[in-house]
Design a protein that fits this description.
By secondary structure, the protein is mainly alpha-helical. It has a domain of 101 residues. The protein has 9 helices and no strands. Helix 5 packs parallel to helix 7 and helix 6 crosses helix 7. The longest helix is centred in the middle third of the chain and has 18 residues. It is elongated and about 85 Å long. It starts with a helix and ends in a 9-residue tail after the last helix. Pfam families: Retrotrans_gag. This is Retrotransposon gag domain-containing protein.
Length: 167
């Protein structure tokens, strides 16, 4: 009937809005960025937030929980990825949670530096600052003999002239 044709499904409406507000080139770029997304220097929480944001532009890459967990795990740093993968197949939520737990335990295992090493020397009063050694001095004399080529010594020993005679 005419009423059924005029009603939009949620997916149809979403498609229309995406096409209007997110041009195709933008969606393709975001999909590429999502596929290449790596944790890098970010915390797991920051990486997960970015992963979730960019995954909305590549739903076909994360249409199952296994695909989503696999892509997330593959983007983790090598150390985290190996440790998370050692727990076997996990759901996406379990993968994120396990990565956060491992990251937290690694932060706890990192030895704390004494405050004196952390504070910059520039903030200490001049009387407390350690004296820095003088920079190394270069030799006062340098060998100033001009380079005359590879065959200079050989020709000199044989009595040959050091320079070619003009024609």
């Amino acid at each position: 009937t005419a009423d059924e044709r005029d009603q939009l499904t949620w997916d149809q409406l979403k498609g229309i809005l995406e096409a209007k507000y997110y041009p195709r080139h933008f969606r393709e770029r975001m999909e590429r960025e999502f596929y290449d997304l790596l944790q890098g220097d970010r915390s797991v929480e920051e990486y997960e937030r970015e992963f979730a944001r960019k995954s909305t532009f590549a739903r076909h890459l994360v249409d199952t929980d296994d695909k989503k967990a696999s892509l997330f795990r593959n983007g983790l740093t090598r150390d985290l990825r190996v440790l998370v993968a050692s727990h076997g197949y996990l759901t996406y939520a379990e993968t994120v949670e396990r990565a956060q737990q491992i990251e937290a335990s690694q932060l706890l295992d990192t030895p704390a530096q004494p405050l004196a090493q952390v504070a910059p020397l520039a903030r200490q009063p001049a009387a407390i600052q350690p004296a820095l050694p003088a920079p190394p001095q270069q030799a006062q004399h340098r060998h100033k003999r001009k380079w005359r080529g590879r065959d200079y010594r050989r020709n000199r020993r044989r009595g040959a002239p050091t320079q070619a005679a003009p024609p």
